[in-house]
Amino acid sequence: MTMTLYSRAGACSMAPQIVMEELGLDYELVMVERDKLNTPEHLAVNPMGQVPSLATGDGLMTESVAILLYLGEKYGEGRLMPPPGSWERGQMMMRMLFLASQEHPAFGLWLRPFRWLDDGDEQGRLKAAAEERFAVCFQRLDGWLEGRDWLIGNHMTLADTLAFVHACWGLRVDPPTTEYPNIWRFAQNMAEVPSVGRTMEQAGIALTKEQHGGR
Predict the structure, then answer these.
(1) Each residue's pLDDT tens digit, 161-196
(2) Domain 87-194 maps to which CATH number in 3.30.260.10, 1.20.1050.10, 3.40.50.20, 3.60.21.10?
(3) Which CATH architecture has domain 3-75?
(4) What band does 210 get if pLDDT is binned at 50, 70 and 90?
């Protein structure tokens, strides 16, 4: 059965698509527009009204990290993941969970504070707090990339695909990820990877501030 990936341009669903392109997997791409996320049709796929979702022969899977691990373990043959039980495997997992649980929520607060607060001044304070969080997170990510081309080891892993998406999102915040030399170097190098380039081309986006809207 051909897998189906439900995605949206610029969203974190780019990470599993990069992996599927990198591994040469056969899949169908369904792009879901923002105003269609909470339609009955899409909620039947993902009750949270989010992307990504992955339809497989075994059923539906949601959550970026879970999908990335599923693809890497089932199809990667060691290409995108360090060996099980290794220190490097644990470090990859730590970085992925850091990105998903520390950085990602801050983007949601920064992009759409109106989801949580009605008052404009309070929304502004929430965005400012999110930017303070970005500074802490980006400094840590920039430190991990000091003197390195990849987050783990000497080749691309699952963690790099997620970090690339976050580096793209960070182009819109203040200060942007272009102000973090290691993150920006990493993002530019990742954009040159063929599987990343194909993913960005299919989404119709480039490594520019204007085209990255986040989640």
Answers:
(1) 999 999 999 999 988 999 999 999 999 999 999 999
(2) 1.20.1050.10
(3) 3-Layer(aba) Sandwich (3.40)
(4) low
Cα gap 64→13, rounded to integer Å: 7
CA distance 215 to 213: 7
- The length of the chain in residues reads 215
Per-domain residue ranges of the chain = 3-75, 87-194
Query: Which amino acid type is present at position 204?
Result: G
Q: What is the pTM of this model?
A: 0.92
Q: How far apart are CA 12 and CA 99, in angstroms?
A: 11
What span, in angstroms and rounded, lies between the C-alpha atoms of 61 and 48? 12
How far apart, in whole angstroms, are the C-alpha atoms of residue 22 and residue 70? 14
Residue partners of 215: CB distance under 8 A and separation at least 6:
11, 12, 50, 104, 107, 108, 111
Beta bridge pairs of residue 4: 28, 55
